[in-house]
Structures are given as structure tokens and as C-alpha cells.
Amino acid sequence: MKTNLQRLLLAMMYTLFIVGMISFYQEQLWIMFLSFVGFAVSSVQYARACKEESEEELDDEREKNQSLSEKYDEIKERNNRMKNEFENQVELKERKIEAADNEISNLSNRLDEAIRFDDIKGILPDTARFAEDFDVISITPVIRKVLRSFHDRMKAAGIVMQILEPEEEVFARADEESLKILFKNIIDNSIKFMGHSGKIIVTVTNAVNEVIVVIRDTGEGVPEDELNHIFEINYQGSNAIGGTGLGLAQAKAIVDYLDGSIYAKSSKEDGMGIFIHLKSE
Q1: What is the dihedral angle through the alpha carbons of 14, 18, 21, 27, rounded to the nearest 10 degrees?
Q2: What is the structure's pLDDT at 131?
């Protein structure tokens, strides 16, 4: 956009140019000379005015760009701040959800534990002491006491007893009276299903943080599909020969009560094996 000064200089240039041309045709050389000198001076002034205007416009454009850049940086910073706040809120929500999930999981585990404990306590022996910390017991003497109590019965049935144990004494955290009932139930079950003649082998192993007791007999065992059910209350397998069906169920209840684990393996060639894992000292 032209300023008033630029318009005036441009008008003077046109006027002086026309005057110079008229003077040239009328051979008024001094007027022509003065006209063209004025025209040249006006042209220089016009060019300077245009340059100054361009510089002013450039400065204005720079200021506008600087202002836009500052606004952009401000908007960008605000967006980043809002993004960070949003991410923090999301992370906080995720932490709360995770904490809630953990709490629900803990409550569920505690409920399952309470239900499991309620299920087993009905068939636990009356001597079971409901305590968090158990005594440290040498486990082999307990097993030997139980085996001695079956001596006459095994002798009459032609069953040989053998116990394999390490040289060093093996200790477990347990309730002695409950252990006696545990081993008694398993050995009684082995004698009952073997009928007559055979062997019962008890192996005691001291492992990392636990004691492993394996009670194996040379009987016929049970079918593979029944192994997962033999510890259930009142379960009678395909080879049932009478009884209440509580012996192995109570054995599992005692092991659960002692915070251990128990499972069985069976085959016609090797007979039945009951594996008991208890916490060591």
C-alpha cells in the first residue's frame, strides 16, 4: 500500500517527465535538463520511501511472526501440560485399579483359604492345634512309631516294612499327633488294599526348605483316572473293599493344615505311591 509521500513523489515524477518531454520537443533544453534532474531526484526519493516502507512492513511481519511463534509455544506448552496431567491421571487410575485388583485377589485368596480350612477342619483329628507356628519335629521317629503299631498286622499278612532315611536327622514343622494320624491313615490304606504279602517302603528325603516322605506299596494301585479323586471325602474307587472313605481325605486335610502338599502316583508294575511334602525347619 502506497503512502501519501510515495503518491506525491510519483506524481512529481510523472509531471517532471512530461515537462521534460515537452521541453525536448520545444527545444527548451534548460527546462528539459531541470525536469530530468527533478525526475531523477524524485525517483531516488521514491525508491527510498518504498525501501523504508518495505522495511517497516518486514518489521511488522517479523513482529507478527514472533507473536504467532510465542502464542504457538504457549499453546504447545499448555497442551504438553494438559497431556502430562492427563497421563498422570491415567497412571493414577491404573494404579488404583491395580491396587483394587490386588485387594480383590487377596480377599478372594483369603476367602478360598477360609473355605478350604472350613472344609478340612471338620475331618481333622481332634488333636490338631490351630496355630500359625508349629513345632520343629524329627520326622523319622514319628514314622517308626506308626510302623511299629502295625507290626503284628503286617506280619500276619506277610507284608514286609522298609524305611529309607538319610544319615542326618530330618526335621519338619508340624504337629506330632496329626503326623501320626497322617501316616497311620496312609499305611492302613496300603495294608488294606494289598491284602496279603508284599512290601511297604517309606522313604524320607531332606530337600530345600522341605521334607519329602514317600510311602509306596507293591499292591495293584488304582487306575490313572481315579488318582485325582482318591483324596476326596467318601470317595470309593473301582477297587473299593469297604471302609468309610475318609482315610486319605483326612490325610490330605492334615497336610493342608500343615501347609504342605500331597499327591499320588500309581501303576500296576510299581503299585501305589503317596508323596508328602512338608515344610522343613
Answers
A1: -130
A2: 47
Assess contact for 172 and 214: CB atoms under 8 A. no
**How far apart are the C-alpha atoms of 18 and 14, rounded to whole Å?**
6
Look up residue 160 and give its three cell numbers.
514286609
Alpha-carbon span 258 to 127, nearest angstrom: 13
d(CA 171, CA 209): 10
In sequence order, the 6+-apart residues with CB closer than 8 A to the CB of 116 are 256
For residues 36 and 20, what is the distance between their CA atoms, to the nearest angstrom?
6
The per-residue pLDDT for range 95-124, each reduced to its tens digit, is 888 888 877 876 665 555 445 445 555 556
Return the DSSP state at 268: T
Q: How far, CA to CA in Å, does 280 sit from each of 1, 135, 165, 211? A: 97, 10, 15, 6
> What rounded mean pLDDT belongs to the chain?
77
Read off φ and ψ for residue 77, nearest 5 degrees. Answer: -65, -40
Q: What is the pLDDT of residues 204-250, one digit of tens each?
A: 999 888 999 999 998 887 887 788 788 887 666 545 444 445 788 88
End-to-end CA separation in angstroms for the chain: 98
Residue bearing the bigger pLDDT, 126 or 80: 80
pLDDT at residue number 139: 92
pLDDT, position 102: 79
Integer angstrom CA distances of residue 5 from 11, 169, 222: 10, 115, 116
